[in-house]
Amino acid sequence: MSSSSTGSRGETVPTVPSAAGVAENVESLDGADDVDVSGMLDRGRTMATPVLRAAVDRLASPMDTVAAYHFGWIDAEGRPSDADGGKAVRPALALLSAEAAGAAPEVGIPGAVAVELVHNFSLLHDDLMDGDEQRRHRDTVWKVHGPAQAILVGDALFALANEILLELDTVEAGRATRRLTVASRKLIDGQAQDISYEHRERVTVEECLEMEGNKTGALLACAVSIGAVLGGADERTADALERYGYHLGLAFQAVDDLLGIWGDPEATGKQTWSDLRQRKKSLPVVAALSAEGEAAERLGELLAADAKETDFENFSEEEFAARAALIEEAGGREWTAQEARRQHTIAVEALDSVEMPDRVRRQLVALADFVVVRKR
């Protein structure tokens, strides 16, 4: 299939090509080799974490302890821990966002913390709704502390996010809070769509991209505009940075979808065939089902039968591997890799309309490259 259609945000969305028609792979992307991406991520984490910890300390017991466990600061017994706290892409983007507007990176810290709080609110709830028992190589909060605490702590982090911004009591803080609130609503919309799609036999590529734009793109878009807003940027600049973040989010989620099926559990911290176990209508699955040919037809038959199974969680590794092989044979894996690259290109091009220091531009491009070639 070679036609295209228009997605919910007005961009042209390609329909699914055959596997043979896809010439490029995500791993072939040329990155900005002269930029220290690890250093950028570490800076975001280092500058945001003290404020993030102070925010969490405001929570009533035992929510403060449960949140500390989720962030990797303590283990299940309450002992100090240096567990993996995530990639810290959003805090890094918020600090760069402030610099893009000509402000000091410190100006973006409240935005970085607010976005990180909303992101982790969503993780706490998502893990419970999806039944995920592992995140970042550790048991999830609901598994250790129970579903009630996962819900309460998630709600508390969401409230803290707005509190942190509004305490600044500036016009810019009000603008930033409005962007965060809209992004949060879209994120929740995306999660609702994701859940509803699990119970549908067919989902279109356009619907899947809309869902992923809400679930992942909206908050990354907020992260990369919120620091600029706090730094006094006008709406045109903030909107352009938001476009970069939105499409970066779609690239990020496309890679996540690949890792959700073919990722190495040692790297991802999740089970093998994670998304297949949860019947997720992720991009590789939807793209494969939208293709033509025997593999797509057979995959559709298997997934339709799977929806009626009551012991789906007890499927063997071989059964999940067979479904993953059909997705790949139908072109879903290669199409998703190509879509990650396409969204990466749109994201980087959005920066062209923003005047910013060349150093900051190169760092934003390097972060986009990192998102597309990451392994976890």
From TrEMBL:
Coiled coil feature spans: none
Domain of life, source organism: Bacteria
Transmembrane region(s): none
Region spans: Disordered: 1-25
Signal peptide span: none
CDD domains xrefs: Trans_IPPS_HT
Keywords associated with the record: Magnesium, Metal-binding, Transferase
Keyword Metal-binding: yes
Family as reported in the entry's similarity comment: Belongs to the FPP/GGPP synthase family.
Protein name, UniProt field: Polyprenyl synthetase family protein
Source organism per UniProt: Streptomyces cavernicola
